[in-house]
Amino acid sequence: MLTRMVYGVTLFYFMFALWHATTNLTDFLKGPLRFLTMWNMLLQTAFIAICLLNSFIGSNEINPKSKPPIRKLRDTIMAGIAFPMALFVSLMFWGIYAIDRELIFPRALESQHSSWLNHAVHTSPMVFVIVQMYASYHAYPSRKTGVTMTAVFLGTYIGWLHVVRARTGVWVYPFLEMLGFPQRLLFFTFSMGLGILLNLLGEQLNNGIWRSAVKKRKQKA
């Protein structure tokens, strides 16, 4: 009951944040869908909805005899994109913000995004997936599957960045304007590597947290 309540409240909070942040979803080239933050928020909101649905019609057991499809979907999304992307967005945003906020979140935008909304979209997803990791065991898919999902998601967004740049003549993020082609290539390569590294970190964290519980469950079985 408590788990469902937490999922429900978190889902409402994320949907409320999305409602405030997505003022113009129809303009793909100039609206909020230019930003990875919004891609991540839509992803995390859908993931929370899946977690909530799984708590009703699926299973949170460590090793259920018959794993429901919704549980498999939850675990796969957590491993492949939800966990790595939540950490990626938070680490990249706050890392660049700490160096020079004008490169990622200019002061001029403060009138459009309040402090709570900034943390709602850049901090709370990371907090949620870490809590979710500790609260429930996730049976990770094969490493190849998980890494491929992360790479495809990030690769698709990097491609979208270039589409927006080609159509509007402006990079979505101000700091990209300051980089030459070699530096941008290095940055995108680093971003892909970081995403994959966070995927592997999630796998190791999940195994470390639940190793003893999984072992006990297998011994009882």
From TrEMBL:
<keyword id="KW-0472">Membrane</keyword>
<feature type="transmembrane region" description="Helical">
    <location>
        <begin position="77"/>
        <end position="96"/>
    </location>
</feature>
<feature type="transmembrane region" description="Helical">
    <location>
        <begin position="41"/>
        <end position="57"/>
    </location>
</feature>
<feature type="transmembrane region" description="Helical">
    <location>
        <begin position="5"/>
        <end position="21"/>
    </location>
</feature>
<keyword id="KW-1133">Transmembrane helix</keyword>
<dbReference type="InterPro" id="IPR006838">
    <property type="entry name" value="ADTRP_AIG1"/>
</dbReference>
<protein>
    <submittedName>
        <fullName>Uncharacterized protein</fullName>
    </submittedName>
</protein>
<feature type="transmembrane region" description="Helical">
    <location>
        <begin position="147"/>
        <end position="165"/>
    </location>
</feature>
<dbReference type="Pfam" id="PF04750">
    <property type="entry name" value="Far-17a_AIG1"/>
</dbReference>
<keyword id="KW-0812">Transmembrane</keyword>
<comment type="similarity">
    <text>Belongs to the AIG1 family.</text>
</comment>
<dbReference type="GO" id="GO:0012505">
    <property type="term" value="C:endomembrane system"/>
</dbReference>
<dbReference type="GO" id="GO:0016020">
    <property type="term" value="C:membrane"/>
</dbReference>
<feature type="transmembrane region" description="Helical">
    <location>
        <begin position="185"/>
        <end position="202"/>
    </location>
</feature>
<feature type="transmembrane region" description="Helical">
    <location>
        <begin position="116"/>
        <end position="135"/>
    </location>
</feature>
